[in-house]
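User: Esterase-like activity of phytase family protein. Structure?
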Amino acid sequence: MPSTTARLFTVATLLLAGVAVPVAPAGAAPADVVPPAGAAPTRGGADCPPAASALAFSDALDKTTFAGVPVTELSAFAPDVRTLGFVTVSDDDPRLFFVRDPLDPRVSATVPLRRPDGTRYDGDTFDGEGVAVLPDGRLLVSSEVEPSIRLFGRDGAERGALPVPARFRVAPAGEARVNGTLESLSISPSGRHVYAAMEAPLSGDAPASGESLIRRMLVYRKAGAGYALDRQLGYAADPGHRISEVAAYGDGRLLVLEIQFTPGVGNDVRLYAVTGVNSAPDVSGIANLSTAPPGTLVTKRLVADLTACPTLGATTPGSQVNPLMDNYEGMAALAPLGRGPAVVHLISDDNGSPTQVTRVLTLAATLP
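Assistant: Predicted structure:
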């Protein structure tokens, strides 16, 4: 049964969309919907094979400001029950942005992230990539710098941190690549589990030859007033792809967003589902996952090849095979109502570039 919070957000999203859009059957004709002038959202029921539909997109946040602060380089898109909206983080100027209405998004507030002594983090000391809102309203934010998962109050003040294994630290302190660490963070709808994923492989998991595909994920479980590290999982990404986000749509159920960028071509974006996460094999003790026996890694199921979605009338200032695509780095997955589809929101990181867009894309997806 979906949590009250997840159901509330799903109801709100479907009401905003105006319809509870079912997933288009295989072979159905896609419906391209041209967006109205300005940044208003588009609505449609387009098919994204094999199990998702594109409902809407909005570029309302692109190249905007709020209270004099540029709204740019956004990662993460986490449901926030306190505002009945969402929260995202800027990875250049470490701060949270609170957003209302994903179909026509607008910033309602922003808070800079601060150390326990009150001084502000900057882009050199904190590269915010993932956000999870705890049941009490406090926020976990992952940073790629060390990496770290820090706990913040709603005022942006640091209140604590979750443990991160030493192997996950950036080389030479550990085995991680620069800008290849904890890109992804999510909390289960029940609040009992927190999930984090590495964007790139650890050097210790590299095979003797060929591309290293296996990423490690961290699973934390509720323990008293905090969260304890429960297990590590092994996940094989598609060749050339990185993990840009994970989103929990149930306890032990994750959506994984994989993305690849090819200069002059654009982004290839794929969405996978993984179930049984909380009981999957713990790979903490395996030194090199490329040599792990069969059955060690979690099994993933393709939900959507987003690059194959109809364009919905989107345009892009850069090079994209599908102009609806961009550098999607944030994702929220809202549990389905009854047997209906889940609602999935993606947000793109424009990297402060004139050839990229800050875009919110809304999907309906049938999830296992």
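The helical segments are 4-17. The chain is about 5% helix and 40% strand.
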